[in-house]
Amino acid sequence: MGESTIETQQDATRPLRDDIRFLGGVLGDTIRDHEGPEVFDLIERVRIEAFRVRREEVGRSAVAEMLDGVDIVVALPLIRAFSYFVLLANLAEDIQRDRRRAAHETAGEPPQDSSLAATYRKLDAAALDGDRVADLLADALVSPVITAHPTETRRRTVFDVQTRITELMRLRQRYSETERERADFEQQIRRQVLSLWHTALIRLARLRIQDEISVGLRYYDITLFDVIPAINAEVRAALRSRWPGVELLRRPILRPGSWIGGDRDGNPYVNADVVRQAAYRAAAVAFGRYLHELVELEKSLSLSARLVAVTPEVAALAATGYRDPATHADEPYRRALHHIRGRVTATAEAALGEVPPGGLDVGARPYPTPQAVLDDLDAVDASLRGSGDDLLADDRLARLRHAVETFGFHLQGLDMRQNSEVHEQVVTELLAWAGVHPDYASLSEAQRVQLLAAELRTRRPLLGPHARLSELAVKELDIVRAARDVVAVLGAEAVPSYVISMCTSVSDLLEAALLLKEGGLLDPGEPDGQPSCAVGIVPLFETIEDLGAGAATLAAALDVPVYRELVTAQGMRQEVMLGYSDSNKDGGYLAANWALYRAELDLVEVARKTGIRLRLFHGRGGTVGRGGGRSYDALLAQPAGAVRGSLRLTEQGEVIAAKYAEPGAAHRNLESLIAGTLESTLLDVEGLGPDAEPSYDIMDDLAERARAAYAHLVHDTPGFVEYFRQSTPVAEVGDLNIGSRPASRKPTNSVADLRAIPWVMSWSQARVMLPGWYGTGTALEQWIGGDPERLATLADLYRRWPFFRTVLSNLAQVMAKSDLDIAARYAELVDDVALREQIFGMIRDEHARTIRMHAAITGNDHLLADNPSLAESIHNRFPYLEPLNQMQVELLRRLRAGDDSELVRRGILLTMNGLATALRNSG
């Protein structure tokens, strides 16, 4: 690689190698001390042999032969050992990334892409018009939405210990000036590793939805409550300084959301009580932090009226701060903040039914809105600045003001989501009970739309107090009413969106609207007025067909006057969600990615013609097979006009911890989202110019070929589902207890009904990674057809077009984690030899074909030539993956041969946990 401007690559990675060696040694000592020398020696022999396999000194069967027939009692600590080796290696890599980033900054090198500093440089160079910037950012929003999609296999306890080890490793690095200090840190690390070794890796019971709510909210205490408001303030100041004549970002750009407790699509455990718990527990986090900050401000702002003057506004607040006028009589800020704390306490008590910690129950009036709180805090801020005390105003008070502006009373927006099929069932029942129509389900689409549009105009409810409904209908209406109550207490931002899964028609949108009307969230308006809805109605287009028809569906909905009026009441804003997971499972990697791009192009055109402000909500998962990959790159790969300053995206499973468990990581990831949003909105990043339409035509052709190749294997090959079930641990994924939702929407053997997460996770465990690449090689090879000019065309698109470059880059990342030699071992689990040879042969051939095509188009001699850090990471963790995969195959074989013991099942689950940790984004 040559010498970098900072130091050689070998010098740069030496600290990482030292950290891995140190942590591995500590873990080894722990295993020897607590499992005995025989177990330790076996683990060490397997580890050494795995390194020899990596160096190609021995064949791939070497490790498998060592583990063949190993006693399960010995196998369990061996699996745990390699799982913890991987976990500690991940930790060391995270520290190394921070170390390299600091070296980069210290060397004074230019800011890296995906940082806001780099984005500001690009904006400065573009010399953009302020009014144009204001128009494009008028509806600015970047909203990461945390979901409970179950791909995070680590227990919270394990995560907490890992966090403590990380902190100690950083302290060891920074403050070990003497041997004594270093020895002290190392002893503390040994204690934590010992605690880790004695902590169970897998859960005994499946997570409850209440547990998932707690897990989601803990990231606010760890990072988000501090990081998000700070970034909002930073971005607003940076943009306003560049265009001082324009009031940019009137509202904070970063506003987080959640699906945990509101997403009931396929989750029978979400009910009205859960919705209330999710919303009010989030509010409790916000109020608790506000009260804590107010207590600290009361302590610190001890300025005396004998020494500083205050504004009349602060004097008025101070006059009612304490019941006893003599208390802090000459300390107006303390008295004013005491008054504010009393009112915030009253607000929290009115919303939550209890006084949070730090509360001040003095019988004060509740604040009616978050803005009212902010007005009082702004008065304190203005008074401090008026007396020249900006240093004080810019500290804790500023952080509290930014937090209140960002989080309000609700902390995060809780989306509702349900499948369109459920809406149809419930609406059919409601209309029949009310005597509107005896069999709504039998109507044509045009008849449904006509009936629903008329119902949305009338103020008459469909149900009376004595209506007798099915359990499903009662549950669905109770959930909507619970959301109505939350909005009434915490404000409209508490429940911003109602998402309709598998939305295929206008009636799907109107059915949801009717349920919102019946539940009290949609107001039909006065006879001569317009309807309005407290929440946005959001279609989710998921399959290839639905993505293709999505723009037409939206245009048709906007042609229905009552729906158009609802969008008008939302400020002409229409949110549309795009499903990455199901489209991939439906049509394969390349076809799904292009279907999403095409859908966005068509939706942007509908928005242009109809005058609406389009906001896209990207339902991305952690893996490439579910829309994963670097968020910054994904944003730059969006079509022109698709971002327009505003987007939402899901953050799921293990990705949440990877991005938001540590303040530095949280700041970088949120910063990259805003950087990508600003660049995609304000700059021409597509880069195709007049070549756009011909390039789109090429992709249309490639996508159709890729989909056909994928369908030939997944949907059309007899026995494929049986092969999948026997050659992967899909049957065991549901036993991991990593989420509250069932693994399948319906109890069938259909790939279509299997949830995308177990589909992707199972292929990842078996190291095939099929959802992230299959079909692409065939499409590229067929289209090129040996024609050098066509190959040159694709190579040119790879260089110029961020979308095509990102598609191939993400494909390369996932293929680099695949291992068809290991996959062949899993294929041996398939009983039918002919079926095994046929399907694995197809997979093996397509894998080789795809690698060849990637090399031909990119000019790279290996998959990760453009991502050396990931290449190094995969190389480093190979010796830990090898034993885990080989052990998993061995135990699956035993289980399927009839050894259904608890220890064998536990061993399989442990290998799944370890592999998911090693692969880092496995579902």
Note the main attributes of this structure:
923 residues; 9-stranded parallel β-sheet; two-stranded antiparallel ribbon; 11 strands; 63% helix
> How many strands, which pairing sense, and closed or not: the largest β-sheet?
9 strands, parallel
Helix content: 55-70%
End-to-end gap: 33 Å
Total number of helical segments?
Answer: 36
What is the strand content?
5-15%
Mean pLDDT: 91
The secondary-structure class comes to mainly alpha
Low-confidence stretches: 1-7
Biggest β-sheet: strands ordered side by side in the sheet? 3-2-1-11-10-9-8-5-4
Overall 3D shape: globular
Q: What is the β-strand count? A: 11
Radius of gyration, in Å, reads 29 Å
What's the arrangement of secondary structure elements?
Elements: H1 9-35, H2 37-54, H3 61-67, H4 72-106, H5 116-126, H6 130-136, E1 141-146, H7 156-175, H8 179-197, H9 209-242, E2 257-258, H10 272-300, H11 312-319, H12 332-352, H13 370-386, H14 390-407, E3 413-414, E4 416-419, H15 420-433, H16 445-457, H17 471-490, E5 497-501, H18 506-519, E6 522-523, E7 532-533, E8 536-541, H19 544-558, H20 561-569, E9 573-579, H21 581-587, H22 589-610, E10 613-619, H23 631-636, E11 646-651, H24 654-660, H25 663-682, H26 692-714, H27 720-727, H28 730-733, H29 756-765, H30 776-784, H31 788-800, H32 802-816, H33 820-827, H34 833-858, H35 868-896, H36 902-919
Parallel strand pairs: 1-2, 1-11, 2-3, 4-5, 5-8, 8-9, 9-10, 10-11
Antiparallel strand pairs: 6-7
Helix pairs in contact: 1-2, 1-4, 1-8, 2-3, 2-4, 2-35, 4-7, 4-35, 4-36, 5-25, 7-8, 9-10, 9-14, 9-25, 10-12, 10-14, 10-17, 11-12, 12-13, 13-14, 15-18, 16-18, 17-18, 19-22, 21-22, 22-26, 26-30, 30-34, 31-32, 35-36
